[in-house]
Amino acid sequence: MMHTERQSRRNTGGYGMWKKQWTVMTTVMLAAGALAACGSDSDEKKPGATGSGDGAKPNVTVRFHAQNATFDKTMMAPVIAKFEEKNPGVKIDFVGMTEPTSDEVTKKIDLLAASGEPLDVILLADARSYSQRAANGMLEPLDKFIQKEGFKFEDEYKTDTKWNGSYYALPGTFNQWFVIMNKNHLDEAGLKVPTVEWTWDDYLDYAKKLTKGEGASKRYGTYYHSWADYFLLGMWNQPGKNDIVWTDGSLNMDHPGVRKSLEIRQRSEIADKSAIPYADALSQKIAYRPIYFNQSVSMMAIGSWMIGEVGGTDQFPATFKTVFAPMPRNSQSDPAGHAMSSSNYLAIASTSKQKEAAYQFLRFFSTEGLTMMQKYTTSWKKEDTSKLLDAIIGATKTPQNVDKESLLYVLNNTKPVTLPPALPYQAEVYKLYQEEAEKMLLGQQDIAASIAGAKTKLQKLVDSNKK
């Protein structure tokens, strides 16, 4: 998967500009909603013969907007057919969006909403995108539908989507971070597949031993992509307070995991030279798939969307076996086996005129529908994970190059860690932090100066958003 499937909370857009745009968008959407309410009484109609037994107005069409790179028409066809079979009178119109990144898709959805385009179900790629739109009235609260159906959210889903006391989405795919490793390179260096007991210091030792050669043909032990995630590796494995600005606006920059995150990058990229330098990653616009599959790098921390890729695809054939290791802990005294997890978010537009039918589709798609695809692990607690993994791995070009034993070990011995609900200005939080961390990697300042600089900037940001 690409940035779109990563489900991170990073964005480069400024909150101030976004807030001004939303003032205009919200006004347009409210006006459109008011006109629709005057001209139609279908807003709260229940779709005829739905799976829940509700009877109501037939021939309802629900539009589902999602990035084509995540769910395309071929993947959606059997899912839609099954839903429509179970829910006569409800049709699903899948709108695959071709924008290359999740940020661009979200911007397009915002523009469609502002222009009055009919929106029913929308897919939001990450917690940041979700919380921002829940905060600004774009999304319909789902509490009344959940209460009517009578299920306990925590019994159904792995990811908690509650924001400001209400549910505005159901979680879709489920991504958990781990380490993918080239088995041939491990064997060559005489290294074993790590267990949950290993630490970041062990990881850095592995990276140094896996590094080989010099110059253009040099093979690096590891690589950190340009995402903000890779500047927070020592934070996002924490089961407790694990983000740099907390939900109440208090700074968490004095957490030892912040310094550890920067030490990981400094040691491997600058001291040991066992990781591709950040300056090279930027100047050469390095993408993580090519360098892993052409064996220019031996291991990297990444999300579970790669399960369906390390067995080889048309674009990136796999010529070696991949084994899996848990995310390292910061030190031997830390609890073992914790890793960041994330989901994408299935929501109903507040302007939708088919909310009942849209909710029925949300529930089906976030449970049975996603598992039917046999493409991604899901946030549904009732999925048969082992069976789903067999299907995902079996669909790759060379399934024998995926080590299922180590993968199951990781999944069975890792406790998912989720980040707190994103602040409306979360994108700016990571942008300011990353700007200061980059200065350390580019030799402009040390770790202490980077942390101090980030604290100053972040406090100003928090204060400006309290006004």
TrEMBL record:
Keyword annotations from UniProtKB, A to Z: Signal
Region (Disordered) residue spans: 40-60
Gene3D superfamilies: Periplasmic binding protein-like II
Record carries keyword Cytoplasm: no
Leader sequence segment: 1-36
Superkingdom per UniProt: Bacteria
A Pfam entry, by short name: SBP_bac_1
SUPFAM superfamilies hit by this protein: Periplasmic binding protein-like II
Membrane-spanning parts: none
Identification of the protein by name: Extracellular solute-binding protein
The organism of origin for this protein: Paenibacillus hemerocallicola
Higher taxonomy: Bacteria, Bacillati, Bacillota, Bacilli, Bacillales
